[in-house]
Structures are given as structure tokens and as C-alpha cells.
Amino acid sequence: RAKASLTQDVCFYEADMDQAVRARRRVTQALREALENERFELHYQVQASVSTGKATGYEVLLRWKDHDGRYISPADFIPVAEENGLILPIGEWVLRQACRQAAAWAEPHRIAVNLSPVQLSHVDLPRLVHQILLETGLAPSRLELEITETAMITDMERTTHVLRQLKALGVSIAMDDFGTGYSSLSTLKAFPFDKIKLDRSFMTELDGEAPQSRAIIRAVLTIGESLSIPVLAEGVETAEQLAFLRAQGCNEVQGYLLGRPQPEADALLNGVVRIAATEAAEPQAERAA
Ligand code: C2E
Ligand code: MG
Ligand code: MG
Ligand code: MG
Question: Which residue has the higher pLDDT, 153 or 34?
Fold first, then answer.
């Protein structure tokens, strides 16, 4: 009985593996096809200053439109693209397309582009970014690159070297999803980041009874202040969250409360208006420090 069930488990396991491998192959094929046929789109999500309520920039978020016109989330295909190397041409497309679009905007808003750790370790990124800036005419000060600490962990020395070269071009570097990894604090020590993006998981937990998230948010804001690095809170969905962040002296916010990621034209139109409305609806709280 025990033996039979073990064999059965192994069979199930192999069937699962087989299925997983085939699913990955299908996704790889579809990604290649999407790249060739330009089925990718960029959406933009507004970021705003807590004190002025004005837009400070837009995060660029990749979308894959399938044949039925539905958007597939990057969380579902970026890991596959990182595994099969397609993140390199896809990431280059994102950078070029984002810089090109932003260069044509009437207002010189900053854009924030996500970088995969694979791009940091496999491409001459400073050269590529330099080339794309020249090609599109976007001012380097309008480009911010977001990296997660995973990129730092894999090869700290090489990564900090690449980041320094990128900064020398005049672009800024943000630490994304801060507080979720294993070594967030040592990462801050290794490189002078221009911004800390506090992960949205802390926002979700703010609504619960647990006081820990509040304490952690306060601590991160104190760290940012001590190091003179502005902190942006991700995933702000409610007016209560915004009020708490404002009272604690958070510099910038991003989240559904201000606007969802949208095609560029919509994002540029709606962002500022919705922030103004939010701002007006908020009682003026005391700003700590
Ligand atoms: P991220 O860089 O942390 O981006 C923020 C994610 O949070 C986005 O998910 C955004 O839609 C979502 N978000 C924003 N505000 C809220 C909110 O108030 N509530 C909730 N629940 N979610 C919110 P998205 O667009 O699905 O992207 C997921 C991740 O995929 C990104 O996380 C980023 O790591 C990656 N990604 C997106 N575009 C690119 C890209 O062009 N290149 C690379 N390498 N990665 C990308
Ligand atoms: Mg990001
Ligand atoms: Mg993030
Ligand atoms: Mg994230």
C-alpha cells in the first residue's frame, strides 16, 4: 500500500513536471511572438509628492496584450522571460519605448523604469542607456531606474559599479520593494540610492490591527531621513493610509488612490486631477519633522 502510493505520487510528480515544462515552452514561444508583433504596451502610474499633491513622475509598467485583448500581468511572464533570456530584448524595448514616449510629452515629467537583475548582469547597461538617451533626446534627469535588492545580492561589486556608471550619466536610481528582501539595510549601505520605494505589503497590513507595520513604516522613514534619501510609499489605496503617511513625513506616494496604471494619454490626463481632489478631501495633518 505504502509502495503503491509512493509510485503514484512519483507519477503525479512527473506528470506535473512535464506539464510545467510544456507550459513554460508555450509561454516562451508566445513571448517571442509578442515581441516580434509588438503586442507589448506600456502603462503609466502616477507618483505624487505628499506635501504638494502634484505629480512627480510616472512608473512605467509593462503590459502584454493577448489575442483576446486581455492584459497579462508582468508578474506572470517576467520570471519566465528572465529564465529564457527574453527579458534582454524585452527590457531594451521597454527602455527605448518609454524614453521615446516621455520625450514627446508636453510636460517634462520623470519616468521610472523597472530593471531586471538579469539586465544588470548581462548587458552593458550604461552604454545601452546612454545610447537610448541620445537616440530619443530624453534628458537623463528625467529617467529613474528601479532595481530590487536581488540585483545587489547576486553580485554586489559588479552591480554597484554598473549603478555608479548609470548615475554618472545623470539618471537616478531607486531601490524598489524595500523591506521585503533579506538584506535591505546592507543594500542601502552599498550604494547611494536616490529613492527608497517602500513595498506595498506594509500598506496592506496598515489596515489590520497589528501595530508592527506602522512601526516599520516609521522606522523606514527615519532611515530615509537620516540618510537624506526620499521615501516613496507604494500601494497607497485609502485616504487613511495617505493621512498616516503624511503625518509621518513620507515624501511621495503611488497607488490606486491616486491612479491605476493606464495607457500614457489617460495617465497624464487623470493623474494630476485625482491627486488634487484627494488632497482637497484630506484634512491637513501635522507633518512630523
Ligand atoms: P513593481 O515595480 O513593484 O510595480 C508596482 C506594482 O504594484 C504594479 O504591478 C502595479 O500595478 C501595482 N500597484 C500599484 N499600485 C497599487 C495599489 O494601490 N494596490 C495594488 N494592489 N497594487 C498596486 P504590475 O504592473 O502587475 O507589475 C508587477 C511587477 O512586475 C512590478 O512590480 C515589477 O517588478 C515587474 N515589472 C513591471 N513592468 C516591468 C518591466 O518593464 N521590466 C521589469 N523587469 N519588470 C517589470
Ligand atoms: Mg517598480
Ligand atoms: Mg515595487
Ligand atoms: Mg513589486
Answer: 34
